[in-house]
């Protein structure tokens, strides 16, 4: 059986875990992971631990870290009428370290700097007091000119990855290393089949297989720009419309519209419409099952082989893994969600990477030279606009007001 240890603020607190509550956490593509658990200890003079917001939590399996996060707002339940000195339960939630990059803002302009140099500077100047300015694994990229006007570090990283246009993404691993790279295809540790999945076991999710149709669309309209000068683009899959007419009758049209005011050029709006259509026109099949096999991680590619439910050696991609402790915290069960979607990261997220965290923006690019405003497009040329001097006695109006 696995040996599970729980470290709080660098100290092993495994013996304080309240076993009936268990321990569970999620890892997912494009999202913040979370862990939930309960400590039991005394309060008052007999207290040994007092969980506090901001403390680091690390979960290890056989000595290897499998989750690392930050404690957020632990609650307390007293187990008796006297709150001064008695046993209490501390209900705790920890969020993965990407939570930190959501709360920090970037205020800086970069001119003709490489991708990796910009990332290193952001880490040094905006994350140094968060303990995340150390080890990195950042793939070299292109040269960019960009200004961040109060975007979060998450948004800054998202936008930089999107500008590389090579499908790269980023995350913070369990050793607090910031990783930015194009994901290489990696295999799941095992095929999910009748021998590796739990069936009819109390507490486990029985294998299920379904088609995810809720987001389907074959006509996508994107409206960018601003209310005074909107930019509209539409992308249509005529073949899908014809197929829907043959299968269902009617017009065959499934329409989706979204407003993206942060996209300012026609090229970007049209590209976004095409990317969103590519994402929504694919109807994925989704599998969920529970296994004792460890090592499943979001982004992996693997095989599900369950002919009795219509899955005969089907290739799928891991999108979510929820881990729960069992048998007195001596064993892990992993509920794995997999999808047939060929790009689980989503084509449209080339513009809005890791959208489950926070919707990024495309900021105004301001050069240091006075009187010049430059707007850098993700797709398209860099346009330069010279502002005229205001008439005597009048006040200049800043762009965007």
Structural account:
The protein has 5 helices and 24 strands. It has 401 residues and is mainly β. The strands form 5 sheets. Strands 1, 2, 3, 4, 5, 6, 7, 8, 14, 15, 19, 20, 21 and 22 form a 14-stranded mixed sheet that branches. It has a 3-stranded mixed sheet with strand order 10-13-12, covered by helices on one side. Helix 2 (115-126) runs antiparallel to helix 3. The chain has 4 domains: 4-96, Baseplate protein-like domain - beta roll fold (Phage tail proteins - horseshoe like beta roll fold), CATH 2.30.300.10; 101-183 and 350-386; 192-210 and 285-341, no CATH class; 219-280. Helices cover 14% and strands 38% of the residues.
Topology:
Layout: E1 4-8, E2 11-12, E3 23-28, E4 34-42, E5 56-61, E6 64-71, E7 75-78, E8 87-96, H1 98-103, E9 105-114, H2 115-126, E10 136-138, E11 143-152, H3 153-164, E12 169-172, E13 178-181, E14 192-193, E15 208-211, E16 219-226, E17 229-236, H4 238-248, E18 255-259, H5 266-280, E19 285-291, E20 301-306, E21 311-326, E22 331-339, E23 372-375, E24 383-386
In short:
The chain is mostly beta strands and 401 residues long.
The largest sheet, given as strand count, sense and whether it forms a barrel, is: 14 strands, mixed
The number of strands is 24
What is the gyration radius calculated from CA atoms? 25 Å
Instruction: Indicate the percent of residues in helices.
Output: 10-25%
Please, how many domains? 4
Category from helices, strands and their pairing = mainly beta
* Unreliable residue stretches: 344-401
Mean pLDDT comes to: 77
Report how far the terminal alpha carbons are from each other. 63 Å
Per DSSP, what share of the residues sits in E-state strands of 2 or more residues?
35-45%
Count of helix runs: 5
**Which term fits the overall shape?**
globular
Instruction: Write the H/E string, N to C.
Output: EEEEEEEEHEHEEHEEEEEEHEHEEEEEE
């Amino acid at each position: 059986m696995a040996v599970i240890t729980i470290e709080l603020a660098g100290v092993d607190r495994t013996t304080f875990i309240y076993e009936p509550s268990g321990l569970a956490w999620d890892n997912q593509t494009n999202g913040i992971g979370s862990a939930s658990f309960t400590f039991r200890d005394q309060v008052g003079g007999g207290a040994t631990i007092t969980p506090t917001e901001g403390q680091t939590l690390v979960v290890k399996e056989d000595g290897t870290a499998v989750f690392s996060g930050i404690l957020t707002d632990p609650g307390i339940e007293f187990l008796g009428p006297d709150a001064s000195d008695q046993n209490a339960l501390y209900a705790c939630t920890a969020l993965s370290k990407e939570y930190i990059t959501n709360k920090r803002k970037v205020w800086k302009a970069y001119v003709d700097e490489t991708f990796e140099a910009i990332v290193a500077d952001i880490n040094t100047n905006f994350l140094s007091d968060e303990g995340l300015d150390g080890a990195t694994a950042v793939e070299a990229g292109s040269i960019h000119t960009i200004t961040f006007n109060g975007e979060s570090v998450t948004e800054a990283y998202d936008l930089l990855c999107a500008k590389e246009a090579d499908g790269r993404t980023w995350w913070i691993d369990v050793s607090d290393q910031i990783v930015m790279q194009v994901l290489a295809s990696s295999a799941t540790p095992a095929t999910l089949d009748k021998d590796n999945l739990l069936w009819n076991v109390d507490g486990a999710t029985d294998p299920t297989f379904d088609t995810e149709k809720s987001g389907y669309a074959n006509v996508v309209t994107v409206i960018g720009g601003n209310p005074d000068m909107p930019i509209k683009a539409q992308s249509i899959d005529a073949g899908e419309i014809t197929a829907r007419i043959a299968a269902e009758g009617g017009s065959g049209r499934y329409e989706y519209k979204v407003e993206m005011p942060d996209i300012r050029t026609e090229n970007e709006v049209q590209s976004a419409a095409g990317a969103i259509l590519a994402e929504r026109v694919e109807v994925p099949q989704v599998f969920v099952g529970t296994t004792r096999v460890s090592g499943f991680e979001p982004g992996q590619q693997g095989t599900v082989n369950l002919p009795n439910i219509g899955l005969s050696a089907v290739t799928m991609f891991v999108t979510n893994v929820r881990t729960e402790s069992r048998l007195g915290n001596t064993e892990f069960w992993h509920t794995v969600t997999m999808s047939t979607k060929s790009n689980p990261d989503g084509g449209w997220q080339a513009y809005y990477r890791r959208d489950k965290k926070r919707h990024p923006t495309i900021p105004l690019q301001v050069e240091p030279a006075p009187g010049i405003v430059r707007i850098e497009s993700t797709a398209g040329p860099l346009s330069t606009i010279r502002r005229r001097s205001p008439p005597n006695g009048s006040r200049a109006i800043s762009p965007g007001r």
